[in-house]
């Protein structure tokens, strides 16, 4: 069971990582095809879509898998199948409802975005249109979620990972190929290409559904055999069944939906606040930089850190159930240390190399690089929120997740407009940082009180990690200074070269310090210790 859990976590994490990495990389050619001026239209569609999607399905696969595995554990395979059959109808209904809501709410949402027709880049009709085009994907995606949940509940993790990856690949191919044909072959407007690109979410979802169907047919004989050997389904009513599933779902939904909610607050308030301080001419550009171009880059360190840390969460749940305080403290220590050990250097690297990173990914832009440098530190809070919320889930403190998430969001809503009026785009970043910091602070307080968690060792280790990061930062800073003294950045490939050289210097310095001190070995275990001893590093 333990090996299945580790294997399943690894498969899901790798699939998620590859999917998210592709989600960043495709932006580079898409940006080149439609241009900076039009790429923002794409984001105006995706923020409400991501929010609607998160409400429609976020948490459903995990909640359904938890329900199915619970009844499978006692040999009751019929109850899980009962949920699957009824859930298919429920998710089809959810998909149709969420599609209709987003489709018909497209114009009211667009009205929040278009606050100055004469000076904005996009019209009300254009923003309304892209939101409606992307809404079609909601007809398919909720159906996929219940199939993924049922398969995961039966310890089949590969279908979720592969279907997510195929869905992303097909979507990206359709986005890029469609945009290229529309702009360069059919000689139509890049904004027409953006409409086609957002519709690609529907085509990608269909591809993911086909993959899941093929896996379902593969596993069907096995499931039928288990179903045949199962006693009749328990007498749990459909009402009780869905009350149980919804009880599992709500905290998962909030964790999944919180980031799109913060972005949605920006979407509803950013342009009005910028208009009020006389910045109508640049508000679309800054909004695109904030919530699309730099956001995708900032999520990279979050993805890597939480991928490693989340693998430890089931262990924490196990120790909590057994009331093993030593094991619990050790697991929490390792979780926080690994998360910060991996995230902080990547964040510092993004700050120092913000200009070169932005130039390589998109185009040379002092404003864009400035937004990236300001936004990058928030990645640490994103990562800490994910990890602390997962720990609270592991110890069954679901109500606290609801409270802290909504409290942080409330502060974002209250502070966003006044801070934007004072600090422009950095005000929106500051409001996000404050909201997440409050949520993370309360989460950590609850964890420390409930689990009696205190660790001086972690404090000492974090100081050591901080010192190593300062040394690495100095090394990378002077390396970049030297490169720029030889030749300023003139193009994408030169920017990439400088990023790679500085990254290698940073990895060597940080890695050598971590290995020589024995910190890396303590964090990543015996296998790394055995390897490093062969190369003469301390254990």
TrEMBL record:
Pfam families: Polysacc_synt. InterPro entries: PG_synth_SpoVB, Poly_Biosynth_Transport, Polysacc_synth. The chain crosses the membrane at residues 12-34, 46-68, 89-110, 130-151, 172-190, 196-216, 245-265, 297-317, 338-355, 367-388, 400-423, 429-450, 462-480, 495-513. The keyword RNA-binding does not apply. It is a multi-pass membrane protein. It is found in: Cell membrane. Keywords: Cell membrane, Membrane, Transmembrane, Transmembrane helix. The keyword Transmembrane applies. This is Oligosaccharide flippase family protein.
């Amino acid at each position: 069971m333990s090996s299945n859990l580790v294997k399943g976590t690894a498969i899901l994490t790798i699939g998620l990582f590859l999917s998210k990495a592709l989600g960043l990389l495709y932006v580079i050619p898409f940006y080149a095809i439609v241009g900076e001026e039009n790429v923002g239209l794409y984001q105006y569609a995706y923020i409400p879509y991501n929010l609607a999607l998160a409400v429609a399905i976020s948490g459903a696969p995990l909640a359904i898998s938890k329900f199915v595995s619970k009844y499978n554990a006692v040999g009751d395979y019929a109850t899980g199948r009962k949920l699957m059959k009824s859930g298919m109808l429920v998710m089809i209904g959810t998909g149709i409802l969420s599609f209709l809501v987003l489709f018909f709410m497209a114009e009211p949402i667009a009205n929040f975005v278009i606050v100055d027709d004469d000076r904005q880049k996009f019209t009300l009709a254009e923003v309304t249109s892209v939101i409606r085009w992307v809404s079609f994907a909601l007809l398919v995606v909720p159906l996929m979620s219940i199939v993924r949940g049922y398969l995961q509940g039966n310890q089949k993790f590969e279908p979720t990972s592969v279907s997510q990856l195929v869905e992303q690949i097909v979507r990206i191919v359709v986005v890029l190929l469609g945009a290229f044909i529309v702009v360069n072959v059919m000689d139509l407007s890049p904004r027409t290409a953006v409409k086609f690109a957002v519709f690609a979410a529907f085509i990608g979802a269909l591809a993911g559904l086909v993959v899941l169907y093929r896996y379902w047919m593969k596993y069907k004989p096995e499931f039928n055999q288990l179903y045949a050997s199962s006693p009749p389904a328990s007498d749990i009513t459909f009402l009780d069944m869905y009350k149980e599933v919804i009880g599992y779902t709500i905290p998962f939904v909030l964790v999944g939906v919180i980031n799109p909610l913060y972005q949605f607050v920006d979407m509803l308030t950013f342009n009005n606040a910028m208009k009020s301080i006389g910045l109508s001419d640049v508000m679309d550009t800054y909004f695109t930089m904030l919530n699309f171009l730099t956001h995708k880059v900032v999520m990279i360190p979050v993805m890597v850190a939480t991928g490693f840390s989340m693998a430890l969460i089931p262990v924490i749940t196990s120790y909590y159930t057994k009331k093993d305080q030593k094991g619990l403290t050790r697991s929490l220590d390792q979780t926080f240390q690994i998360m910060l050990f991996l995230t902080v250097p990547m964040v510092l690297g993004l700050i120092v190399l913000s200009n070169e990173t932005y130039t390589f990914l998109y185009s040379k832009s002092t404003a864009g690089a400035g937004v990236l440098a300001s936004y990058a530190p928030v990645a640490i809070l994103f990562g800490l929120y994910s990890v602390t919320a997962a720990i609270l889930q592991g110890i069954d403190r679901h109500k606290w997740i609801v409270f802290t998430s909504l409290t942080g969001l409330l502060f974002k809503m209250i502070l966003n407009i006044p801070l934007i009026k004072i600090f422009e785009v950095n005000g929106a970043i500051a409001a996000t940082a404050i909201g997440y910091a409050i949520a993370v602070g309360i989460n950590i307080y609850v964890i420390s009180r409930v689990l009696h968690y205190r660790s001086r060792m972690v404090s000492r280790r974090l100081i050591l990690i901080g010192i190593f990061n300062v040394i690495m930062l100095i090394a990378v800073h002077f390396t970049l200074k030297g490169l720029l003294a030889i030749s300023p950045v003139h193009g994408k490939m030169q920017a990439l070269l400088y990023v790679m050289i500085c990254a290698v210097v940073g990895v060597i310095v940080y890695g050598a310090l971590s290995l020589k001190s024995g910190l890396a070995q303590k964090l990543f275990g015996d296998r790394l210790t055995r390897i490093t001893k062969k190369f003469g590093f301390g254990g």
